[in-house]
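Query structure, 396 C-alpha cells:
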C-alpha cells in the first residue's frame, strides 16, 4: 500500500516567496484520503512581481522541483524542469515559475527527504492567467497528497561521469558528477546508509555538470552518499551508494573561552536584517539557527547581500574575549568574506576576514564587557548571505 504524506495549505501575503518540487512519469493508483489535510499545492499570479508562483508547506524538510509541459489531450509530455534556488531541504517551499501567459500546462511534483525517499504528486493542470486576485488558485483540480515512488531507474543509464568525492578535508568534501542531459539532483548523505542530511547544487535550473560541497563533517569519519536525478521528461534515476572518509583534524585548537552565544544558555536574537522568505527567527533559515550550536542549520537573509546583519543578546553581560563566525554559502552567492562586530553604542570591535565557508573561524578581540553584539556584513558575493554558526567567547 502506498504511504501518503500530508501537507498544509499556506495562507501567505503575495510578496512572500514560494518554492517547488520535481516529478516524474508513471501511473498512480487512486490514493486513500485518510491522511489528507487540505490542498497542498497552490499556483497564483503576483501582480507586483508580474510572475506566477507555486507554493506549499511540507511536514518535514525536503528538496523539491517541478516538471512542466504544455497540456496535451493525447499525452502528458514534460519539457521543463525547475526548482527552488536554495540548496538545503526546507518545509516552506516557493518557486517563481517561468511560464507563457494564457498557456495551459501539465505539471507534476516530486520531493526528496534526507533519506532520499521519493514522493510524487499526480499530474495536475493549470492555465497561466494573469489573475489579479493572488488568492485564486490556478490549479484546476485540488492536489491533496504525494505518494511514495519506488523502482527508480538505474542512474548508470544517465551518467557521463559517475558521482565521486574530491577535496576531502577533516570537515568538508566536494561531490561531483555529470549527466548526459540536463537534470536536477538530490544527494542524501550521512554517517550511515540511512543518511540523515541532503543537499543539491545551488541554482534552480537543470544542468549536466553537478558539483557541490558537503560541509560541517566530522573528522576521521566514513560518510555514505546516494544521488537521485530527474530529467526534463520526469524520469527518475538513482545511483548506488558511495562512501568516503574525512581526514584527521590537524588544525591547532584555539581556546578563547566558552561560547556564551547559545540559545540553550539564554542567548537570543535582538534584531536581524531579514530571514529567508520573510520568515520568523524560528523558521527554516531563521536567525535562531546561528546560535543553536548546530552547523547543519543556517541563518539566511532574504537577499540582503552586503546589507545583512544580525544582533545577538547574551543572557547577561560577559567579559568577551573573542568571536567565531562560520558563513553560509551557495558557492556562487551567499558567502560572506568580511564582517564587522559592533557594540550597542556603535563602537567597532574589529573587522574580520573569512578565507572560505568550510569551517568556523575564530578571532581574538580586546577584552570588553558586553551583553549585545551586532555582526554587520561588509563584503560578500551577494544574495542570501547568512551564517551557519556565530559564537561569542567569554567567562561563564
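Result returned for the query:
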Amino acid at each position: 500500500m502506498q504511504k501518503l504524506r500530508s501537507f498544509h495549505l499556506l495562507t501567505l501575503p503575495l510578496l512572500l516567496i514560494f518554492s517547488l518540487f520535481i516529478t516524474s512519469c508513471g501511473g498512480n493508483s487512486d490514493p486513500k484520503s485518510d491522511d489528507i489535510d487540505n490542498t497542498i499545492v497552490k499556483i497564483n499570479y503576483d501582480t507586483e512581481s508580474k510572475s506566477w508562483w507555486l507554493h506549499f508547506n511540507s511536514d518535514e524538510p525536503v528538496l523539491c522541483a517541478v516538471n512542466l509541459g504544455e497540456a496535451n489531450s493525447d499525452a502528458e509530455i514534460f519539457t521543463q524542469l525547475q526548482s527552488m534556488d536554495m540548496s538545503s531541504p526546507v518545509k516552506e517551499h516557493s518557486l517563481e515559475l517561468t511560464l507563457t501567459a494564457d498557456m495551459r500546462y501539465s505539471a507534476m511534483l516530486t520531493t526528496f527527504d534526507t533519506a532520499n525517499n521519493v514522493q510524487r504528486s499526480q499530474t495536475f493542470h493549470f492555465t497561466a492567467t494573469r489573475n489579479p486576485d493572488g488568492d485564486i488558485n490556478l490549479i484546476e483540480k485540488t492536489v491533496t497528497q504525494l505518494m511514495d515512488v519506488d523502482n527508480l531507474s538505474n542512474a548508470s543509464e544517465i551518467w557521463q561521469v559517475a558521482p565521486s568525492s574530491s577535496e576531502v578535508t577533516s570537515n568538508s568534501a566536494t561531490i561531483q558528477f555529470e549527466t548526459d542531459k540536463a537534470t536536477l539532483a538530490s544527494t542524501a548523505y550521512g554517517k550511515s546508509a540511512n543518511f540523515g542530511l541532503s543537499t543539491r547544487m545551488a541554482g534552480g535550473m537543470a544542468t549536466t555538470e553537478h558539483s557541490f560541497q558537503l560541509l560541517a563533517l566530522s573528522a576521521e569519519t566514513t560518510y555514505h552518499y546516494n544521488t537521485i536525478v530527474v530529467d526534463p521528461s520526469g524520469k527518475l534515476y538513482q545511483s548506488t551508494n558511495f562512501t568516503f572518509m574525512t581526514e584527521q583534524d590537524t588544525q591547532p585548537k584555539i581556546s578563547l573561552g566558552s561560547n556564551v552565544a547559545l540559545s540553550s544558555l539564554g542567548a537570543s536574537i535582538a534584531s536581524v536584517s531579514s530571514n529567508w522568505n520573510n520568515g520568523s527567527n524560528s523558521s527554516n533559515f531563521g536567525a535562531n539557527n546561528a546560535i543553536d550550536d548546530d552547523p547543519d542549520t543556517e541563518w539566511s537573509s532574504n537577499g540582503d547581500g552586503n546589507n545583512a546583519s544580525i544582533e545577538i543578546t547574551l543572557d547577561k553581560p560577559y567579559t568577551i574575549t573573542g568571536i567565531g563566525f562560520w558563513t553560509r554559502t551557495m558557492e556562487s552567492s551567499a558567502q560572506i568574506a568580511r564582517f564587522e562586530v559592533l557594540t550597542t553604542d556603535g563602537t567597532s570591535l574589529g573587522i574580520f576576514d573569512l578565507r572560505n565557508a568550510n569551517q568556523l573561524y575564530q578571532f581574538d578581540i580586546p577584552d570588553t564587557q558586553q551583553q549585545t553584539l551586532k555582526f554587520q556584513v561588509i563584503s560578500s558575493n551577494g544574495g542570501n548571505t547568512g551564517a551557519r554558526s556565530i559564537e561569542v567567547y567569554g567567562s561563564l
